[in-house]
Input
Amino acid sequence: MLRLWRESIRPYFGWILLAILCMALMAAATAFSAWLMEPVVNEVFIAENRDILWPLGAVVFLTFLVKGFANYGQSVLMSFVGFRIIADNQNRLFAHLARMDIGFFHNNSTGKLISRFTVDINQMRVAVSNVLTGFGKDVLSFAGLTTVMFLKDWQLAAISVFVFPLAALPVLRLGRRMRKVTANTQEEMGLFTTLLEQTFQGIRVVKAYGMEGYEKSRIGDIVERIFKLNLKSARTRSMSSPIMETLGGAAVCVVIIYGGHRVIAGATTSGAFFSFIMALLLAYEPMKRLANLNSSLQEGLAGAQRLFALLDTEPAILEKPNAAELTVVKGEIRLEDVRFSYTHGRPALNGISLEVPAGKRVALVGASGAGKTTILNLIPRFYDVDDGNVYLDGVDVRDVTFSSLFANVALVSQEITLFDDTVHANIAYGRAGASDDEIVEAARNAAAHDFILDLPNGYDTLVGEQGVKLSGGQRQRLAIARAMLKNAPVLLLDEATSALDTESERQVQAALVKLMAGRTTLVIAHRLSTVTGADLIYVIDKGRVIEQGGHEALMSQGGAYHRLYNLQFSEDAPLEDAARAADA
Output
């Protein structure tokens, strides 16, 4: 609670004070309306004083007018504070997550992270608004009404307030249970979001394999668990009602019996007694709301705990305090005795050393799982080495700022990321502030301009989520255009054409030739035919370099590269023969 106050609530303390002032006016008006019952009963109904009717009516009207506007003021002010807290924490959480390393996102599902932005932070907002409003409005109202009760009859008031100490212990126990149930519900909501996202993104596979029933069953199971948790939450929250109703009924019963005797005995007037009863009944509602306040608080604290746990998670890869700005002049890449493991005890790279000369095109080949993509991931520090060093122009990448490192490296992979935005915006992602002419020029160089003009709205066409409205080749050429616009001196290509058909691959390869010109390029190739012209080829196996050299030299050695090359073409030939036979 102290952290919630310090980091989220205190910046808006001035607004809260204004809201409390409105609450105080509302509480005073509520208490004064109970006070007015005595002259209403004594002067109007008993003494039948006509002269007081209009003045008393005007006072009652003004009292409720003040109460209404005060309630409006506190409601608007507290809504402002609550929604401001949501916005601040969502911005803060996104800024924090943007600093996290790639490994963090691989270990935390998207649905769980999204639930922090929606469910958890909203629970905090509701708790802050409800607790502050309740603690302000209801406490002040109860205090004002209790004051009226003591002024009217201190003996009856003393008897009435026994409800609070009796209700405190069970209400606190309910609050602790509420926090646990809420935390479990929020966890399930994160899983639910993840499952929905995976199902919708993979809907083609779901339908192709006829797995709608299976996915329906999985969704149904988690929906049922959430239903049961929500029902448990509702039961827990509602348990305070019978407690307060029973104790409140007992208090009213005692007041009626004891107070009735006092009126009959002439110890107090009917007006004073009715004024007391009205104050007691009016105090009963804020008293019930205060009993429920602890449940709302615990719900919010459950969300706050999950949010703070995420905010306290530090990235595994940090920028050094004295990190220098990297300015790539040549673009030479060098790995020295690099060792790396994704999981402990299972090395992905085992003492690998290699060099990519400046301005040259170097290819990494080898079987799946050999460590090729891992090498690419270490250069822009998506991961950090366990041992050894990665140099760019002779500077260890761990000694430079992230921004300068990313600015000097461009990546194009087979897993193209396009945003649900226009073609123009997706290309412009390569460099902030690029002009329209530069974007069109990048598209031309990537052999994308012509197909873009054929789209319904040209460069303003929405590509859909992950570019679903485009073909594989079109998506790839947009990614290349984005890399061209960035114009970084170092280019990393991760099997950029492996998933394309022959015609699309031809167009993309032509675009890649333009992109690689004058740049230091490190290529991972699935199809060895695409790297025969590389200046240098490294053959990777089990995290080590086992061969290196040009295509002709490696073929003449008759080693691993020679076997991989011949195996690939011997596998391709039957497929091509079968395709020709099918066409015939």
